[in-house]
Amino acid sequence: MMLLVRPFPQYNQRIGNLCPSVPESGRLLAGKMSRAAERLRTVIHHLDGATASIRASPTSAQTLTYSPPQKLRYSFDTGILTPEQRLFYEENGFLLIKNLVSETDIDRFRKEFERICRQEVKVPGLIVMRDVAIAKSEFVPDQRAVSKLQDFQEDPELFRYCALPQILKYVECFTGPNIMAMHTMLINKPPDAGKKTSRHPMHQDLHYFPFRPTDHIVCAWTAMERVTRQNGCLVVLPGTHKGTLKEHDYPDWEGGVNKMYHGVRDYNPNHPRLYVEMEKGDTVFFHPLLIHGSGMNQTQGFRKAISCHYASGDCYYIDVRGTTQENIENEVKDIALKKYGMNELAFKDMWAFRGRLVQGERTSL
């Protein structure tokens, strides 16, 4: 007889307060946890025990024996996440934390983004991506719109995001204490010009990463303003992190696709999906196998978010040749050849160059 624990509400079509979260205002009910939460904590202790099992005390001649539960796979018990949050992430592959990054920090990131767009500062290694269909940019009218900054690890102001203590304390719950910042982005989703190029196809982030283990990688994605379905919020397929890495390639879209916007070739379109609507400063953490994307920006303004992919410093590189990831390896190497004139650079070396230690020790990455 298996013990089933299902504390999750039924899915709605969008997320507001669905994800259990801990506000930074410190409203943890220390010592006053509900009886339901106490029961969950007891279950967590059992789940985290290597040889724990749950048995019912015999009340008659019949003895009920429960099969030994497995350890929680996708998070560590660091004392930061509540039992409800750990179980939510275990089941769904993502977790929304409200009001995690301050308005002051976000405004500083926005100003630095504007300085980069105006070419007032040059950042080594930074990739500035422009929308294939948007002719008018936000700050420089005679240039195509900047849709994304990638690899800003050499910009001290933007990279501050990756080392924010309030971000890292949650990241550690998924990577462990040795933390590498591996991939940085500031996404500036432009108003759609009618060709739907502001969409981001459904994909799994692991497609881009030649390092493992998968479960010790996590993304932190912070809204720099209110994010809704109208301006193209994230959409996720809950539970798909429990699957495997699928084949990715450019989708066959009539209006064109932005560079390196690969999409999953085959997934169940009828899988329940959730629209993650967020306020400025809210941060969502998600697993690299979670299938997700974003819709069109149907407003007149640009929608900004800043993100970093983290991995355990104990992760290791793999050879992706002959796998479904070989196409992205070849594309990245082509970009490196054009940008830096380097044709002998290995895929893993590119990631080792990008990676920055933000906590603990760099043992293998």
From TrEMBL:
GO biological process: fatty acid alpha-oxidation
Reaction catalysed by this enzyme: decanoyl-CoA + 2-oxoglutarate + O2 = 2-hydroxydecanoyl-CoA + succinate + CO2; octadecanoyl-CoA + 2-oxoglutarate + O2 = 2-hydroxyoctadecanoyl-CoA + succinate + CO2; eicosanoyl-CoA + 2-oxoglutarate + O2 = 2-hydroxyeicosanoyl-CoA + succinate + CO2; 3-methyldodecanoyl-CoA + 2-oxoglutarate + O2 = 2-hydroxy-3-methyldodecanoyl-CoA + succinate + CO2
Documented EC number(s): 1.14.11.18
Record carries keyword Repeat: no
PANTHER family referenced in this protein's UniProt entry, alphabetically: PHYTANOYL-COA ALPHA-HYDROXYLASE, PHYTANOYL-COA DIOXYGENASE, PEROXISOMAL
Family stated for the protein in its record: Belongs to the PhyH family.
Protein name as catalogued: Phytanoyl-CoA dioxygenase, peroxisomal
Lineage of the organism: Eukaryota, Metazoa, Chordata, Craniata, Vertebrata
